[in-house]
Each structure stands twice: as structure tokens, then as C-alpha cells.
Design brief:
This protein has one domain (2-194). It contains eleven helices and no strands. The chain has helices at 2-15, 18-27, 41-48, 50-68, 70-74, 80-95, 108-121, 126-143, 146-163, 168-184, 186-194. It starts with a helix and ends in a 24-residue tail after the last helix. The model has no long low-confidence stretch (mean pLDDT 91).
Length: 218
């Protein structure tokens, strides 16, 4: 019963649509009808600006942190597999929120929050967080594509989990997170392939269409 209650709390925590709320409060708009249409921090940056984007990003990360730490502690669920289940459910709540007809964000910030939370409770997972962030950062700085960096980091996550000899439930978590991210980024993958994905203009990048060298416009 404790586990069931904790999973419900974790889901509804993840399901809080922070990007949607920010759009309504700041400009009285439905964020799903602007920018990329995604209910996430990146689209808030694009549509509402830097500071609203930062606030939404922090809150989405915090959801993952709380699910991986506080919720488990409150209900006395301290085993690794307990925290893995709570982590999966909070990200699922963010991705498929009951408050927006089960259409939510892509789970990157909340997944990051989960990894941060897990490092607080499980010290051996800290190299996983560091290496995954490093992969994301290198890819993002190289290409300027947030979506591509997120996809590649997600693909590397279970590999890093396995190479650093993490517990089996954590490796499973990495695999499922990878599936979540790739599935939620299918429209981005298509836009990347077509050369139509939005790119963050970094000062050391050459100006251009934003198409990667190995992607061709159709």
C-alpha cells in the first residue's frame, strides 16, 4: 500500500505541467500552440524568454529530485528498485500528464532531476550523472541542437550505467529512460533529418541553415 501511494504521489508530482502553467500566468497562452508545441522548458525559453525558461527548467528538475529522494523517504521506501519505480513514474507523469489529456513534455529535465536525486541517495551513481552530462554538453556545444544532444545522451545513459557496473535496476532505468527520450523525440528526429530543426545560435558556430553536415534536406 505504501508503494502504491508513493507511486501515485510521484506520478501527480511529475504531471504538474509547469510549462503550461507558465504560459497561462505570464502571457495567458497555451504553450502547446506556440513554438514547437512541446510542454517543456526548451519551448518556454523559445516562446516566453530566458527567465521563465530557467524557472520552468528548475521546477521540472526539482520534480525528479523529489521523486528520487523525499517521496521514497516519506513512505519508507529505501531500496534501489523502489527509487527506480518512483523515478520512472515521475518522468511518465511529466511525459503523459493527466492534466493535459496525457500529452506532456519530453522528460529531459525531470530525468536529469532523477539522476541528481539518485546521486544523493546512491553515491556510486555519481559518475553516471557526470559522464551523461558531459556527453550532452559536448554534443550540444558541437551542434547547437538541444534535441540531438538529449537523444545522444539518453542513448549513452544505459551504456554508461552498464560500464560503471551499476545495480541491475539502475541499468533497467537507463534503458527505459532511453526509450522514453527517443520515442518522445520522434518529431525532432524527423526535423533533424529534414534539416528543419531549430538550433541554438552559439557564438562560435558558423551561420547557416542549421542542417547537420550528414543530414540532407528532402
Amino acid at each position: 500500500m505504501k508503494l502504491v501511494l508513493a507511486l501515485w504521489v510521484s506520478y501527480f508530482l511529475g504531471a504538474i505541467p509547469t510549462a503550461y502553467i507558465a504560459g497561462r500566468i505570464l502571457k495567458n497562452i497555451d504553450i502547446r500552440k506556440h513554438g514547437s508545441g512541446n510542454v517543456g522548458a526548451t519551448n518556454v525559453f523559445r516562446v516566453l524568454g530566458k527567465w521563465p525558461g530557467i524557472v520552468v527548467l528548475v521546477f521540472d528538475i526539482l520534480k525528479g529530485v523529489l521523486a528520487a529522494t523525499i517521496i521514497g523517504d516519506i513512505f519508507g521506501l529505501n531500496q534501489v528498485w523502489h527509487r527506480v519505480l518512483l523515478a520512472l513514474v515521475v518522468v511518465a507523469g511529466h511525459n503523459w500528464t493527466v492534466f493535459l489529456d496525457f500529452k506532456g513534455g519530453k522528460g529531459i529535465a525531470t530525468s536529469l532531476g532523477v539522476l541528481i536525486g539518485l546521486t544523493i541517495k546512491i553515491a556510486v551513481i555519481r559518475p553516471v550523472l557526470f559522464l551523461t552530462l558531459l556527453v550532452w554538453l559536448v554534443c550540444f556545444l558541437s551542434t547547437g541542437f538541444v534535441s540531438l544532444a538529449s537523444i545522444i545522451a539518453a542513448v549513452f545513459l544505459p551504456v554508461i550505467m552498464a560500464l560503471t557496473s551499476q545495480a541491475f535496476p539502475l541499468v533497467v532505468l537507463g534503458v527505459i529512460f532511453c526509450v522514453f527520450v527517443v520515442a518522445r523525440h520522434r518529431p525532432n528526429i524527423k526535423r533533424l533529418w529534414d534539416g528543419q530543426e531549430s538550433r541554438v545560435p552559439l557564438p562560435f558556430h558558423k551561420k547557416g541553415s542549421g542542417t547537420l553536415p550528414y543530414f540532407k534536406k528532402k
